[in-house]
Design a protein that fits this description.
It is built from 6 helices and 11 strands. It has 261 residues and is of the alpha/beta class. The protein has one domain: Stationary-phase Survival Protein Sure Homolog, Chain: A. Its main location: cytoplasm. Nucleotidase that shows phosphatase activity on nucleoside 5'-monophosphates. It catalyses: a ribonucleoside 5'-phosphate + H2O = a ribonucleoside + phosphate.
Length: 261
């Protein structure tokens, strides 16, 4: 099996090492794992592509490349310039921190998997929730490292992929903020939303008198309701959420049509 991997934390991120190990196990002894990841951290860029300027890429080692661009840029580079043949699978992550709830909308990890799906490649995003239960472990990615390959295998062997659909399915996987030994089973969830304020802005004056704005997040360990990704993770489960890049509010089409008739 040929696997392309990327992330949004950057080519030197510890979560990428975890993902490389997962991909190597899935690919098998005769497989190939190709890394095309951002040269610098790209957290929060979502599905951004560098449409208005070129992207410099550098070969760091065999089957290992860094691109000065977004995760979606990396996927495009891998598929259309670097890999000799199309991959059988794309994995994005393992992100440092959860990509559940409203975080999905901002995540470059999700953006990489979304671009893979748009390009017709089976794609899975993987993220590690951080919290008091794992942040001080020798390996805070322990849950993803121990259970990641098993989750990927189950998705490949049993989950639907809808490869012929206009917007193919991809999967968003979040591992709970716990050690591997305390991690629960896989739970299929919908995307939740924390009832907190989400992202905000804090201003600060620099020593030179100039004003800068910092983006601030909000509390992550907040329940989002039964059947949702965040709540499943906080309960110790691995959340798996099927997703598409189609943002249409299908449940409101008829109401809008009636309103505008």
């Amino acid at each position: 099996m040929r696997i392309l991997i990327t992330n949004d934390d950057g080519i030197n991120a510890p979560g990428l090492k975890t993902l490389e190990a997962i991909a190597t196990e899935i690919a098998g002894p005769n497989g190939e794992v190709w890394v095309v990841a951002p040269a610098f951290e790209q957290s929060g860029v979502a599905h951004c592509i560098s449409y208005a300027h070129p992207t410099m890429i550098s070969e760091l080692a065999e089957r290992r490349w860094a691109a000065e661009g977004s995760p979606a840029d990396c996927v495009l580079a891998g598929l259309h310039d670097i890999l000799p043949e199309r991959p059988d699978l794309l994995l994005s992550g393992v992100n440092r921190g959860n990509n559940a709830g409203e975080n999905v909308m901002y995540s470059g990890t999700i953006g990489g998997a979304m671009e893979g799906a748009l390009q017709g490649v089976p794609s899975i995003a993987m993220s590690q929730f951080f919290g008091p239960g794992n942040a001080r472990l020798d390996d805070p990615f322990e849950s993803a490292a121990m259970h990641g390959a098993g989750v990927v295998r189950k998705l490949l062997d049993h989950a639907p992929w809808d490869g012929s659909a206009d917007y193919s399915l991809f999967y968003n996987v979040n591992f709970p903020p716990l050690p591997a030994s305390k991690t629960g089973d896989i739970t299929v969830t919908r995307q939740g939303r924390r009832p907190t304020a989400g992202f905000g802005i804090e201003g600060q004056i620099s020593p030179t008198g100039r004003r800068f704005l910092w983006v601030r997040g909000s509390e992550q360990s907040v329940e989002t309701g039964e059947g949702t990704d965040v709540s499943a993770n906080l309960a110790g489960a691995i959340s798996v959420t099927p997703m598409r890049a189609d943002l249409t509010a299908d449940d409101r089409l008829e109401a809008v049509e009636r309103a505008l008739a």
